[in-house]
Amino acid sequence: MTKSVKIIGLSVLILLIISVVAVMLKFRPSDSTYVQIVQNNNVIYTFDLSEEKDRTFRIECPQGGWNEVKIEGGRICICDADCPDHTCINTGWLRSEGVPVVCLPHKLVIRFADGENN
Q: Residue 108 CB: number of other CB atoms within 10 A?
């Protein structure tokens, strides 16, 4: 093996390791228990999931339509919606800071927040 082949192989290995670490950090479970529900870039609800009781509630979209949000066992998800593709429902429970639950037709985002006032 030539020196250049070894350098290329080592570079590829380093990039692979960095990529795996970056993906693991992005999808790791959040330590935060605070959650924001944002619609049209406005925070409409902030919850501390560690203190919320299990419940289901509906969020109406000003342009029409709705999302049903479920809080259960310290977790949150969109369990039903009248949007055409149901991607928000298929996302499942909010798990990671890097992957919020999003309903594009209703401009609704459920994401982790740093604290009560964020």
A: 25
The pTM (predicted TM-score) of the whole model is 0.71
* DSSP conformation letters of 29-82: BPS--EEEEEETTEEEEEEETTTPPSEEEEEE-TTS-EEEEEEETTEEEEEEE-
Helix (H, G, I), strand (E, B) or coil at 110: strand
φ and ψ at residue 15, rounded to 5 degrees: -65, -40
Q: What strand order describes the sheet that includes 42-48? A: 42-48, 34-39, 108-112, 101-103
Closest CA to 80 of 89, 72, 71: 89
The per-residue pLDDT for range 56-102, each reduced to its tens digit, is: 999 999 889 999 999 999 899 999 999 999 999 999 999 877 789 99
pLDDT band at residue 28 under the 50/70/90 scheme = low
3 state SS of 2: coil
